[in-house]
Amino acid sequence: MAITVKDVANKAGVATSTVSRVINDHPSISEATKKKVRKIMDELGYVPNITARNLGKRVSSAIGVILPPLDSKERIGNPFYLEIMDAINEEARHHDMTTAIATAKNFDVLLENVQRMHLQKQVDGFVLVYSDSEDPVIDYLYQNEIPFTLIGQPYQHENEIIYVDNDNQLLGKQATDFLIQNGHEQILFVTNTTHESLYFERYFGYQKAMMMAGLDVHPSVVIEKAEDYLSFDTILKNAGATALVVIDDIFALRTMQLAQMYGYLIPETLSIISFNNSIFSTLTHPYLTSIDIDISELGRVAMQKLQELIHNEISSGVRLVIPHHLIKRETVVPLNPKQ
After folding, report:
1. Torsion angle defined by CA atoms of residues 294, 300, 301 and 306, in that order, rounded to the nearest 10 degrees
2. What does the pLDDT look like over 61-83, one tens digit per residue?
3. How many domains does the chain have?
4. Of 1, 109, 251, 325, most Cβ neighbours within 10 A?
5. Domain residues for 317?
């Protein structure tokens, strides 16, 4: 049986990536470690091959774009991912690099895909375009010291990860403030996810705005299962809601359809504001009032910083905040507006 990099790593008590770096005489490996690993290689009769060399060298000239599990129609059809992939691909092209997509219907398969891309040296690094508390992929990237940047706010290791994000808490606050300025006091926050970083941040912003205005803070209205759709009308009536802050544009359209089914008129009896300013915000009337998060810039900067990380031009622990702005359209109307 042929001796592999893994055999050498196991006997030497080091990572396979360390063996690969020793093979390529990488300066990041100490002379003592190089001496130990080379001694094990001689003892085992290991002869480096091209695959092992490539494992230690960045030669693929490609980066991987990791999408979250596309486990619903909303996610599959969400233009956010198309827009951000286009921006990443365009920026990669400027650096003479190509992009490869990692996606799946659940986290287990997604992790397998990412591991395969890394171990087969298909890519030099990754852009992770989401932040999810249940995600095993970011742990794999972090623990294996694989170059990656994150779009969103990490749940841990914030001081060691390079991430690009909007100020989502400020987004949630400003969306809610806009409704309050238009006279709304009974405002609900509606979402179809409860484990993504942007949900927590935007909902915290909603809570902050409501508390600062001396208004009642309501639990988030989570619509994920069939029974959630059935209870939607009751929740709105019990709260006396006149306005909603919705997690993103595509789900805002679903929320508008649901509200209209229960007899609400948008915006006459229910105002709605959302986020992303995607193409969906102007596909149907009334046009959706939304906060533009500059998706293209999120993707461009994440790719640019990954390129710098791959070439050791920056170190870890960088947070970059992309500005946003409110787009006023037709789904918010004044209700005894405050002067």
Report:
1. 150
2. 899 999 999 887 777 888 899 99
3. 3
4. 251
5. 62-166+295-323
CA distance 236 to 258: 12
222 DSSP β-pair partners: 191
> What is the reported pTM?
0.79
Task: Return the higher-pLDDT residue of 47 and 231.
Answer: 231
pLDDT at 1: 62
Q: Where are the alpha helices (DSSP H) in the chain?
A: 5-12, 16-23, 31-44, 50-56, 73-76, 79-94, 107-119, 137-143, 168-181, 197-212, 226-239, 249-261, 295-310
Residue range 98-108, pLDDT digits in tens: 999 999 999 99
Contacts by 335-338, CB closer than 8 A, 24 or more apart: 335/182, 335/183, 335/184, 335/242, 335/243, 335/271, 336/183, 337/181, 337/182, 337/183, 338/180, 338/181, 338/183
Lowest-confidence segment of 110-114, 120-124, 171-175, 323-327 by average pLDDT: 120-124
Residues 6 or more apart whose CB falls under 8 angstroms from that of 268 comprise 333
The pLDDT of residue 118 is above 90: yes
Q: Is residue 149 part of a domain?
A: yes
- The helix-helix angle for 226-239 and 249-261 (nearest 10°) equals 70
Q: 173 and 281: one domain?
A: yes
